[in-house]
Amino acid sequence: MKRLSALLGGLIAAALVSASLVTPTVPAAATPAAPSAPVLSPTPYQGWNTYFGLGGDFTEDTVKSVADTIVSRGLAKAGYDIVWLDGGWQADQSRSPEGDLVANPAKFPSGLKSLVDYIHGKGLKAGIYTDAGPFIPGKCGLGSGGGYYQHDADQFAALGFDAVKVDFLCGIAADLDPKTAFTEFAKALRNNASKRPMIFNLCNPVTSPDWGDYPESQQSINSWTYAPDIAQSWRTYTDVGFVFDIKYKDVMRNYDANARHPEVVRPGAFNDPDYLAPELGMSDEEFRSQMTLWAVAAAPLVIGSDVRKLSNTSIATLTDPDVLAINQDKAVVQAVRVGAAGTTETWVKRLADGGRAVVLLNRGDSAKTLTTTTKAVGLKGARFTLKNAWTNKVTESAGTISAAVPAHGTALFRVEPARGLPGVPHVTAGIPTVTKVGNATQPADAAAVVAGGDELRVEVAVRNDGILPVLKPAATLAGGTGWTIKSLTKAPVLLAPGKQLTFAFTAKLPAGAAPGNAALTARTSYEAIGYGKQNQTTVSPVVVAPAPPSGTVQLSHHDWITATSGWMTPTVDHSVGGGSPISLVGQTYATGIGVASPSLVRYYVGQQCSRFTATVGIDDAVRNVDTAGGTSTFQVVGDGKVLYDSGTVGRDDPKQIDVDLTGVRVLDLVVGDAGDGGYNDRADWAAPTATC
């Protein structure tokens, strides 16, 4: 132990000398050009909007109740101070003979002024909604076009509104030029008769092919070219989802579109990827990812859910002070990706104090340990403090930033140069990973599927990225009820800086393991010199599959493991979305699965089936709409191997498929968008039959 003590003393001394000799430097902040739009909110504004969580079904009492909740649950204190009415507030006849916009008298019997006064009385701000185009019945709910821009701006200001969202549904229906229309509306808002400052949220959601075939000049992807000079924020893509239905894949789609032009963001002017969506279709982990990404994007934080119904977990995510501080950083820099796009990515945001907010993003379907370096994110030096914004844990690294990141998850660190005595070494304890099921190697990018009687090999990787070793590293593993765990690894005395070790285990499921969700839980411990024993707990969700099919089975009537649809949810024996029977070129099928692209439906067949047959195609329901889109690809995948690929399938060419399933454990039915987006892609697996 004397030699070990001498070694540790030398490492500490070297670290302190290094700290005294190296002075980290950071790039100087660029000075943005002065915007022509007024700076009404220097950092991204925050609030709540009616649209995704309430749809059009809200009243003055509903809005008052939400305002009360925003205050009582701490959201207002955390900065969410705008209560925003979206479409649905207007009367059926939306404009009076005198030209004023009219609120629905049944929903707002006290009038909008009374409601605004109530909101202001709670210490909050009020937002309102209109459209840049003229009101066109059947196309949009209300519009300010047709000569009403100044009139409506004056009316909103007189009512006391603090923010205006201006949509483009009427605008696109009237074939307006968005730059011209929004610029005129911006001028009207700025010149309102009451001289009232009002935030202008420019909301052009039109994209191709999601909406059809539109020139780029009419789409949201073009707003960045003019909106920073006229608005406080501008939508950068289509809606992040549907009312009550927001999916992780669409959140990521909107984030990627929003990331295209970080150079135009500055104090008072923000790219807007749309609303935050806790508990509207995403898991808690997926929503934490959305919150992380919106924070580093310097995006407005507007809650789309009904806050009165949110769990304490969601409220805690929305109000985390370290995450909000990154979003509200006064430098107002939008994060950019470091390195290539892919299943795993690194994003970095420069902060006003010269530090960095660093995101390790895992888009994949299995947990990963992700790494980057301080050099890669623009920092120089020999020692760095890493503060995990979600856990508040502060550690020290020699220059590597690492984290165990769940599927669809993120890690968010605030990184800056370290000074003084060495801190707790940055040690990453990996999430338990199933590497084998029986003798079969588990695909690296797929969620593990296990069944009663299976024996698993599970690994937990532990790495030390600090400047000092850690002592007595150890790990234990626990599984579901009745699981038998055996350790295969002898722990070493220490884990040196820059090194990694892997703890391996076997986990045996009882033959009668109940189907459903289970978990593998790893508990990792080690001693940090000067800081005592440290502990980390990491958890990996595991799906215990239902029994495989037996006999000749319609798979639409068998329990799937998971099922996704590009929009809405997969439907059994009906076309997705419409409730109509499955129908392909005039033939109706009694059984099947209706989905929208992209989609994955996963079954456990447990090496018990020999054959899969089905007819695949685009449902006849799309014959009632326009001719755009309506093309998909269909794949049958067994244990990660493509067994059948349809190529592009259109509305008029369904295909019969017959696939050998011999030896297959996990069967995936996959639908893609054929490269032209998901517009009108109502895809069917008609009469999907397994012979087992």
TrEMBL record:
The keyword Signal applies. The lineage of its organism: Bacteria, Bacillati, Actinomycetota, Actinomycetes, Propionibacteriales. It catalyses: Hydrolysis of terminal, non-reducing alpha-D-galactose residues in alpha-D-galactosides, including galactose oligosaccharides, galactomannans and galactolipids. Belongs to the glycosyl hydrolase 27 family. This is Alpha-galactosidase. One of its GO terms (biological process) is carbohydrate metabolic process. SMART domains: NPCBM. Keywords: Disulfide bond, Glycosidase, Hydrolase, Signal. The keyword rRNA-binding does not apply. CDD domains: GH27. GO terms for molecular function: alpha-galactosidase activity. Residues 549-692 form the Glycosyl hydrolase family 98 putative carbohydrate-binding module domain. It comes from Kribbella italica. Pfam families: Melibiase_2, Melibiase_C, NPCBM. Its EC number is 3.2.1.22. Residues 1-28 form the signal peptide.
